[in-house]
Specification:
Blueprint (H helix, E strand, L loop, with lengths): L21 H5 L1 H31 L4 H9 L5 H12 L4 H24 L14 H25 L9 H8 L2 H19 L5 H16 L17 H14 L1 H9 L1 H12 L1 H7 L5 H25 L5 H20 L4 H29 L2 H11 L6 H14 L2 H22 L1 H4 L3
Helix pairs in contact: 2-3, 2-6, 2-8, 2-9, 3-18, 4-6, 4-17, 5-6, 5-9, 6-17, 7-16, 8-14, 10-17, 11-16, 12-15, 12-18, 13-14, 14-16, 15-16, 15-19, 18-19
């Protein structure tokens, strides 16, 4: 079956290629969702950066444990993700996200007090906090993340009409690169000046703010439908059968494996690269992580103001290949500013891929199946910990440059194969 997706507002003929930013003022419910997304992603990146550096200190620089603890956050997606998708298609999506964010706030506060009660400057460290507590915290956080991530994605089409979905998704995606700058930069600065104590309280406060922002929000464009008579398991199978049947959907989902198994782990193990290759500390590491966001925000501004210059299918493939190229360049860098430039390039192309890929999926899939399909789409996030463990192990027994070069080369070959064989994606507008 050939798919022709609805073009975003900025790409419509005769639309004068106007900026998509007007969507924010036009749809108040989308505006609430958009604001909340910034706090969600900001909290996420403060957490990722802080926990990584915390474990690095608690384990005296153990590369394997440092890389693994951050990646473990996405592991619960493998089990919980499909069920979250079923729930997203059955219950109030807004209330589900709000209750989950409060759960994350409580977890962050508990961990914050553990950190506060520990003297991290002592040699050896004294206090209740042990390195494996961070693994528990990231696992607990990952359970909530497994629910929130697919459900938040399904809410975007519920806040705007279908004709403006492309523009809304482009704007919604801006939170990731912009807060990828702010979150790590703020987190790294706080670690370097005040220590680890307050980052987790800030994370908890962000979750509470999200709940407050979502309180007046409604989902006016969610399709009304009768309660499903299918069991939860049968409902999950229905979503899986749809993905397998629709080859275009399946190809779009398979494309996301490279970013989640290569792009994300590269960022997760940045503390190791920063210390071992560049000889820098947490403040410099935060700026490096922020460089990924800087590249993404440039791409976000271009897409939000002008739309996709080329059809979204080819643009998505180009984003995938471009990201692989910049990781390969990054693997050869030993200079701080060159590394920053390579990560900015990665962020630029990664944003193009994710917005393009997400938009194509959301516009093709009907609302009644959107939660289940998006949860399947995000299942490969659950493999990120395994990929992170693999990269961390390679770094531990080899070197950061050797590990990055190998993985970047493999990912580039796979991306080029997808360009050659995913004809359905190439034809999408």
């Amino acid at each position: 079956m050939a798919h022709r997706v609805v073009p975003p507002t900025g790409n419509q003929p005769g639309a004068g290629r106007r900026s998509n930013f007007w969507i924010i003022s036009q749809y108040k419910d989308f505006r609430y969702l958009w604001i909340g997304n910034f706090f969600t992603v900001g909290a996420q990146w403060i957490q990722i950066l802080t926990v990584g550096w915390l474990v690095l200190q608690l384990t005296n620089g153990n590369a394997f444990l440092t890389g693994t603890v951050v990646g473990i956050r996405t592991l619960p997606i493998l089990i919980i993700g499909p069920w979250a998708g079923v729930l997203a298609d059955r219950v109030d999506r807004r209330k589900l996200v709000m209750s989950t964010q409060m759960y994350m706030a409580v977890a962050a506060v508990i961990f914050a007090f553990l950190v506060l009660a520990t003297d991290l400057d002592a040699d050896p460290v004294t206090g209740p906090l042990q390195w494996w507590y961070a693994f528990i915290y990231m696992g607990v956080s990952g359970i909530a993340h497994s629910i929130v991530q697919p459900v938040r994605q399904t809410m975007v089409p519920n806040t705007v009409p279908m004709r403006d979905l492309g523009a809304a998704l482009a704007l919604n995606g801006m939170a990731h690169p912009s807060m990828r700058i702010v979150g790590p930069a703020v987190g790294g600065l706080l670690i370097a000046t005040l220590g680890f104590n307050w980052n987790f309280f800030i994370e908890a406060a962000a979750y509470v703010i999200i709940v407050l922002v979502y309180l007046p929000m409604k989902l006016p464009y969610r399709e009304d439908r009768s309660p499903s008579e299918l069991s939860l398991l049968a409902s999950m199978r229905e979503g899986l059968a749809y993905v397998v049947k629709e080859r275009t959907i399946l190809q779009l989902i398979l494309m996301a494996f490279i970013p989640n198994l290569i792009f994300q782990p590269v960022v997760f193990v940045l503390p190791i690269f920063t210390t071992q290759v560049l000889g820098r500390g947490a403040d410099a590491g935060g700026i490096l992580a922020g460089a990924v966001g800087a590249g993404g925000i440039i791409a976000a501004i271009i897409i939000a103001s002008r739309g996709f210059i080329i059809p979204r299918g080819p643009a998505t493939l180009a984003g995938l290949i471009g990201g692989c190229v910049f990781i390969l360049l990054f693997s050869q860098s030993t200079w701080y500013f060159a590394s920053m430039g390579c990560l900015a390039g990665l962020g630029f192309f990664q944003y193009i891929f994710r917005v393009g890929n997400n938009t194509l999926l959301q516009t093709i899939v009907p609302d009644a199946l959107r939660g289940r399909v998006m949860s399947i789409y995000m299942l490969d996030n659950g493999l990120t910990p395994l990929a992170t463990m693999g990269i961390s192990f390679l770094i531990h027994v080899w070197s950061p440059a050797g590990a990055y070069t190998t993985l970047a080369s493999i990912s580039l070959v796979l991306a080029l194969l997808q360009l050659a064989f995913f004809r359905r994606v190439r034809r999408l507008e």
